[in-house]
Design a protein that fits this description.
Number of strands: 6
Largest sheet: 4 strands, parallel
Radius of gyration: 21 Å
Order of helices and strands: HHEHHEHEHEHHEHHEH
Shape: globular
Length: 299
């Protein structure tokens, strides 16, 4: 389990009353290797290190957040936060490859701090396979005074910072998260930007893949279909890029499609992705839909 007290930890920000496993803070290098979980490596021991190197558990996925030692200690709320960076450098030197991420928190690890982090990760060489930069996600239960959502202009500045490095042919690929583009209203990059979509599980490139699939779907839409009413449920981010698809679907004779944007009341804050919507919020905000099975008959 995790031994950090990260100021932005999403597990700590979870609402009360959920299933117990939601509140488990895992920081397990085995899950990092097997399932792509991002870990900080601050709880690693020498036997762990030797096992990773001996069994070639590569690639790993590491949460870096900042290479500056003091900023790391503040962000992770851990006096031994530099341990994770030390192990990262040793693992890379031993031939273990790593995908890395930075959760970007305004006024804490953006701007010059982010630039240093990107420089230091790049300096580690080809063992760093990728760097993903994602904006901090905050629920209505977060209370740390240093944490706040990223403003649109700040999201745009992070994208510009990353684009400048990419334009300079940075040897380590750096990717901006989908949320950064959605927050500042910029169009998403084309699929070539994401290379092999190596940080897809980190939410980087998911929207582009969806849009490309939707574009392929539109080519095969029939002119007419059996009369049908459909409700497409999504979160706040979906309201930004889904309307053109809904318009195309409504161009099919007999098909009536409504886009229903549901506010995330369970988590609140700046949580706007569809994947974290709760059934309770969907039911409370949408109510009965045409053709819906009676809720009382559903177990």
């Amino acid at each position: 389990v995790c031994n950090n007290g990260c100021l932005f930890c999403f597990v700590v920000q979870a609402p009360p009353g959920l299933r117990p496993t939601v509140y488990v803070k895992d920081d397990d290098y085995r899950l990092s290797f097997l399932h792509g979980h991002f870990v900080t490596l601050t709880n690693l021991t020498e036997p762990h290190f030797e096992r990773i190197v001996g069994q070639r558990l590569s690639p790993l996925h590491e949460s870096v957040h900042a290479s500056d030692p003091e900023v790391r200690r503040v962000l992770l709320d851990n006096a031994k936060a530099t341990t994770g960076w030390d192990y990262l450098t040793r693992l890379v030197a031993a031939g273990i490859e790593c995908h890395t991420q930075v959760v970007c928190c305004p006024d804490v690890n953006n701007g010059d701090v982010l630039e240093r982090t990107l420089d230091d990760l790049t300096a580690l060489g080809e063992g760093i396979l990728s760097i993903g930069v994602v904006p901090v996600g905050l629920t209505r239960f977060q209370s740390h005074p240093a944490m706040r959502p990223m403003r649109p202009e700040e999201a745009a500045a992070v994208i510009d910072q990353i684009d400048a490095r990419r334009a300079a042919d940075c040897p380590v690929p750096v990717y901006a998260a989908d949320e950064l583009y959605l927050e500042c209203g910029r169009p998403l990059p084309e699929s070539e930007y994401y290379d092999d979509f190596c940080q897809l599980e980190n939410g980087i490139g998911l929207t582009r893949l969806f849009l490309d699939d939707a574009e392929d779907l539109e080519l095969d839409l029939p002119e007419a279909a059996e009369p049908r009413t459909v409700t497409v449920v999504t979160g706040g981010y979906g309201s930004i890029f889904l309307p053109p698809l809904i318009e195309s679907l409504n161009g099919v004779d007999g098909l009536s499609v409504e886009l229903a944007v549901v506010r995330n009341e369970l988590f609140g804050g700046n949580v706007a992705c569809a994947g974290l919507l709760a059934g309770r919020d969907i039911i409370d905000q949408l109510g009965p839909r045409p053709g819906q099975v009676d809720r009382k008959s559903v177990v």
